[in-house]
Amino acid sequence: MERSDRLDAMGYDFARATTPAEIEAVQRLRYAVYVEEMHRYDDVAGGDERRFAEPEDEHSWICYARDGAAVVAATRMTWGGDGFSDRQVDQYQLGPVPRRDPGRRDGSRRAQHGAARTPR
Predict the structure, then answer these.
(1) Does residue 109 belong to any structural domain of this protein?
(2) How confident is the model at residue 1 (pLDDT cuts 50, 70, 90)?
(3) Neighbour count for residue 77 (Cβ, 10 Å)
(4) 76 to each of 4, 39, 115, how far by Cα in Å?
(5) Three-state secondary structure of 23-61
């Protein structure tokens, strides 16, 4: 059985939240888990509407799993292409990323472990 067949057999649909309705559904799941179940946050943005909205949502890819109409799991990935929230910039000491590597004429960027480099 291939991976996609196993996922289909589980009965879940996976997607990236791109519409306001999908993002709101994920925020409602967060509220149910973090506020109602875990009692971790008392005063969250959107709490009056039973949503846990965070500034990072505007700068991230939000993905979720759905079982029928119910959102049952979610994750968020902030990769930087859409910027970062002020909290992320402060907490992780993020500075501007140079547009290109000054040592390369084509503007590309590379990273390679020191042990794998060969002298030029």
Answers:
(1) no
(2) low
(3) 10
(4) 22, 21, 33
(5) HHHHHHHHHHHHHHHCCCCCCCCCHHHCCCCCHHHHHCE
Q: What is the pLDDT of residues 18-56, one digit of tens each?
A: 999 999 999 999 999 999 999 988 788 778 899 999 889
Cα-Cα-Cα-Cα dihedral sign, residues 42, 48, 51, 54? negative
> Domain for residue 105, yes or no?
no
pLDDT recorded at residue 103: 58
Tell me which residue range forms the domain holding 50: 3-96
- Residue 117 located in a structural domain: no
Q: Are 74 and 31 in contact (CB under 8 A)?
A: no
User: What span, in angstroms and rounded, lies between the C-alpha atoms of 88 and 63?
Assistant: 19
Token pair for 21 = 């309705």
Domain count, the chain: 1
Domain-embedded: residue 21: yes
Structure tokens given for 37: 């179940």
State residue 24 phi and psi, 5-degree precision.
-60, -40
93 exposure class (CB count in 10 Å sphere: 0-12, 13-18, 19+): exposed
